[in-house]
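Handout, page 2. Input:
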Amino acid sequence: MPGSIDFVFLDIGGVLYDDRIYAEAWRRALREGGGRFTDEDFDEAYAACRAAQDGSFRRRLADRFIGPNADLGSLEHLASRHWHYPPSALHPDVLQSLEALRDAGFRLGVIANQPTQVRAALERDGLIPFFEVWGVSDDLGLQKPDPALFAHAVRTAGVEPARAVMVGDRLDYDVRPAKEAGLRTVWVLRGEAPDLPTPEQLAEPDAAVADLRGLPEVIEDLARR
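Output:
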């Protein structure tokens, strides 16, 4: 086991699977919920959410396109009908990266705001055997950015928070609450990360990677610190 890290937790959307599936589910849900907007309007608002890295995308989009009294629960139900990852949504670097992390001796888990049925996609794509701990919001009744979700996952893994790393694509829902719970952090610059992160944003995580190809090396480097 290299150094001071035992456990690596990964987000699902954006990190393992293409998060455009989620964005499209919300585009459709907002229209079904009564929103009237162009694709360009939605893309601009979604990009603004990604750039800000500050608060619920769902709430911001609902406020923008339906209004501050929008029923978020109803919209989430509408979105859930369209939020399914097809095999093509799995990022091509995932399997190789997970295999490299496992071969290096790291234990793996997930921490994600996802419906329970996401497990079916991971099983279909051969990812289930990699993960020991499942910190999925719908299973636990906890959602990011609540640090309690991260604390629960670490307790389940049986490791000290400082010996665990969270790998996610958002500062507000992954990096900041994971740090608050005592984990180290890697920011993946795809999915819901900004196209052009600022120097201040890049300074928040312990490390950042453009994709998962460089993740095993980055984790091993963090373990040596």
